[in-house]
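2024-03-11 09:14:02 INFO receiving multi-entity request
2024-03-11 09:14:02 INFO entity count = three
2024-03-11 09:14:03 INFO echoing inputs for audit
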Amino acid sequence: MSLHFWPTQASLHAEHVDWLIGSFGILVALLAAPVFILSAVYLVRYRHGRKADRSQREAGNVWLETAWAAIPFLLVMGFYVWSTKMFLDQQSPPDDALTIDVIAKQWMWKFQHAGGQREINELHVPVGRPIRLTMTSQDVIHSLYLPALRIKQDVLPGRYTQEWFAATDTGTFPLRCAEFCGTDHSVMGGRLVVQTPADFAGWQAQAGADRSLAQLGHTLFDRLGCAGCHGGNAQGQDAQVRAPPLAGLYGKPVPLADGSIVRAGDQYIHDSIMLPNKQVAAGYEPLMPPFGSVLDEEQVAQLEAYIRSLGAGGDR
Amino acid sequence: MSEATSHVNPRMSQEPIPDTAVERVSYLAEGHSLRSWLLTTDHKRIAILFLISITFFFFCGGIAAALIRLDLLTPAPDLLSNDGYNRAFSLHGIIMVWFFLIPSIPTTFGNFLLPMMIGAKDLAFPRLNLASWYIFALGGLATLATVVLGGVDTGWTFYTPFSSTYSNGAVFMAVTAVFISGFSSILTGINFIVTVHKLRCPGMTWGRLPLFVWAHYATAVIFVLATPVLTIALLLVALERVFGIGIFDPRLGGDPLLFQHLFWFYSHPAVYIMVLPAMGVVSELITNAAHKQIFGYWFVAGSAIAIAVIGFMVWGHHMFVSGQSPYASAIFSFLSILVAVPSAIKVYNWTATLHKGDIVIDGPLLYALGFIGLFTIGGLTGLMLAMLSIDVHVTDTYFVVAHFHFIMVGGSVSAFFGALHFWWPKVTGRLYNDLWARLAALLIFAGFVMTFTPQFLLGYEGMPRRYHVYPEAFQPLNVMSSVGASILALGYLLPFTYLLWSLRYGKPAGPNPWGATGLEWTTPSPPPKHNFETVPIVDKQAYCYPVGGRGEQSEPRTQNAKQDDG
Amino acid sequence: MAEVSRLQPQFPTLERQREADHFGMLIFLATEVLIFGGLFAALFVLRAEHSTEYTKASKEMHYWLGGINTAVLLTSSALVALMVEAVKAGSARLAKYLLFGALALGLTFLAIKFMEYGLEYRDGVVPQLSAAKLRGGPHALFMDLYFAATGLHALHVLGGLTLLASLIWPFGTARRDTSAVFAGNAALYWHLVDVIWVFLYPTLYLAR
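2024-03-11 09:21:47 INFO inference complete, emitting structure
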């Protein structure tokens, strides 16, 4: 049990955040210094009973006051630009990122890899590779917090949020829930295991999923009878055309009944399964029943993986 | 008797102590029955009612805080169960925010002093003022009922859908309690605004208002414009809880983030409700201690209004990682930096006010300096939190806990104690022993710094807030924090002993023991029912302390008013 | 606020006291606007996220009943405005008739409103009571928000009616208060109730 004051860094972003807070901390200390130092000096020098020059007291000085309002503000604005740029860059994962589904529920973290490997409260990732976490919650709001990477993102029910990172160090790092979620909030944590690519491949083989996420989704698609409307093999051919075909849908723009157009991303597919009347595709009757009470988020993620596997549309 | 006089505060002007006959007509002597208190419309008596009530709630919230800090001595759950711990911090938050901090300075010192400082006989709507206390008391009782019903485990923020659907605590009761207390805030706010507009005495122009009044005016605007939004947000939570309407439940088409927007639209301005009155107090304390005009009156007064206005536009900085649009976050980040500017102006101007002052270092000044120091640290760490990339790492950790405790507890509670010491002679007519006051101020400052500084480190290291069980590596800092908290508790208990003691044994204070310039000091201590025998007429700026220092008697701000009061 | 003509000790003049009463009422109305503001925010969010369902649900409302009610409430508001002028002019009798007219229209509003609730019950679109015709979450949520908003508004109508009625009894303000402080404030409140409805009506009934 040693006293340490700085958390481990495990990514380039973490290093940048530490540089930001370190240098901004210096600025902040410089801004605070006059208050502490001058107050102390004045308390001593102008203490009652002590002889001091108290003549020509100023009741104010507009230029001075404007200066001490404006100069710190402008200095801080420099850091604002730095910090905001860093934040916005952190919003868009690189294209080659490895996507892992995260489903939070009271009080555990579930992870689904594209290969079909599933784990609870433990996340294995390869070092150096950008990892994109697509996250949603089964119940209340949680927040996936990886202190060693200096990132955190709330995980909401009914909505996908994402965070991404590229770990630079192998090792085991803490993974915590940062948004209060009920009784066992404080023990809703686990480990992030960053491995060398070889070790990660080994883990993948050993965690051995016989079927990929998309294959699981395909089974589910058949079991739920989705083909009845969307067509067998999701081609939309052999069924009466009651519902849009799903092949090549992913990433495509979809015209809606109300005239607007959305891109068929994860969120659109998710909502179309759970609350189908929210966005009805143009040219179709709103016939699909909502699956919100039938499916859990893991299954929805599998169905999405299946639909993704049917091919992506042209312009993403 | 002799104890109290043994330590003479040099700030005190050596005026003759008036005949105690004056005390007989004071507001305190206007009747001694319970009825005369419970049906009073005198703003000063209502202030006392509030003072007693919030002191009670301060102890209730303090007990919850003690449980929390005791439990966090070890990483394991030993004193409380996980549910018990969640209930403890929720109760601590709800009571401290709505039943202590929000009403603390406005309903006590604001109520007592605002009319006196502007030369009025009472607030504009005295019965509304009394109603405000009854509503507050009812809300407080409902909060205590929550405890009897098994407590609530949502935290003071009531985030949906946890509060609306999943929590098994007495959420409905807790929400009702806060809902009720909101109306108390609204009534107080209306009363303050109308009073400042319509009841200023002749000559009391806007430019001559004491800064305490400006601060309370800005606070009242927030009371009136922010509280209703909380009211409706809580109503929606109650509807969702009872009828399951789905407004915050995505499976039924609702949106859990809507609650956060409505909640923070109130609760961020509410932070300024907690700190603006404290700033008003500090402006009074610093000018009096330095015996000098405030440096830059309009900058300090204007910054109070600027804080109130910009404060309404920064709520989204609580939601940087919530899933709101990153571009919205970028704008909220900018505005949050902007709102720090008027706060910075105030702090620098207070420092400049000490320049060439004639400074007496006594209890009230130490509390005021404690405010400035702790508020500066709290404010600047707030600036760090406004930075998006830093916030992503430290939001929802102990860093945030430390930050807002520095402002709301280190800052506002220090100012509350400063006000209590500065106006105690006016409120009670008695002097306390200043040696004890200084000791308590130092204890509070030291205890506070020791409690909350480790929490900044805990937060940066990655300890999330509201964690009952934590990794062992965090234990040393947590132990340090708990030890600090026990010193802090001692510091808070100390004033209650010597102040209560002074009620009986303290020396009579006289009308103006600190040689201060405000109109409230032109009345006897304690003041009579309608404050002023004759309507004062003001012909000077605020804080017109004599240039030659304390040797000369400071002139009252008023001409001797004509005998007819119009 | 009821003691219109008696000078309270904290005010220097009766004139100042009236100004204060008036000003206090205006600030109070600002808080009322913000309370409903939260409900409007909820409705706008629902519309933004479920626009198809929102407009569909809105089209199924009894918009002609809502329309009649808008006319009823606006007329009532006009009568109240005239009433204040009558009080100021000292025509107590006229003021009283105008008040009775306004009260009758206000009660009509409530009667139509509750009839409408009854129709909705029969239609099967009341989420907690008769949900046969509801098309799932967003539709139910729309109806719930409709009941919350119009219910809260109806409570305000009831409050306004009580205020207006108190001008006749027990205060009889219409008879003696020619500066119309209390009558003026009650009228302000009634106008606010009116204005809120004028925004609620298109938001709930006329979304297309």
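2024-03-11 09:21:48 INFO post-check: Chain C touches chain A at residues 49-53, 55, 135-138 (CB under 8 Å).
2024-03-11 09:21:48 INFO post-check: Chain C has one domain: 14-205.
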